[in-house]
Amino acid sequence: MTDHPVTGFSPEQQELWQRVNDLWSLSLERNAEQIRSTLHPQYVGWDMNQPTTHDREAAIQSVLGDAPAVTGYELVPLSVQVYDHTVGVVHYMYSASVTPKNAAPLTVTGKWSEVYLRQDSQWVMVSVSGRPESPTGDSNAVE
């Protein structure tokens, strides 16, 4: 897992960026309860390759069960903003190695925009939108 440096970010922005990295790390562990605790109960997201939005349970299932397992990732922050110490908005690019069941690993790249709300001194995700690009064979696996 690669965490790009966030030089020039305030401590609060660095804390929010770390939260983004922590959520990706949880996707490696595939622990439903831990993932659920990081998402607001009214979370709504939109993979813009899909026709409609999804809720918290759909987001959790996107990294569990029959979903391809994330085995590595690299995140590149584009913008990390915090508003009134309460709302955070993060835009970033990613590259992830995923392994579908009974298939060869793939590399998936894309861009996400995420919105967070600080609750009880923790950043909780309330929304995400973005567009994964078409996966490619994993000759350049991310580790």
Q: Keyphrases for this structure?
A:
single chain; 143 residues; alpha+beta; eight-stranded mixed sheet; 3 helices; globular; disordered C terminus
Annotate the secondary structure layout.
Layout lengths: L1 E2 L7 H19 L2 H7 E9 L6 E2 H6 L7 E15 L3 E13 L6 E14 L2 E11 L3 E2 L6
Parallel strand pairs: 1-4, 2-7
Antiparallel strand pairs: 2-3, 4-5, 5-6, 6-7, 6-8
Q: Can you tell me the residue ranges where pLDDT is under 50 for at least 5 consecutive residues?
A: 138-143
**Based on helices, strands and strand pairing, what is the structural class?**
alpha+beta
Q: Tally the helices: what do you get?
A: 3
Largest sheet entry:
8 strands, mixed
pLDDT average, as an integer? 90
The SSE order reads: EHHEEHEEEEE
> What is the terminal separation in angstroms?
6 Å
Give the quaternary arrangement of the chains: single chain
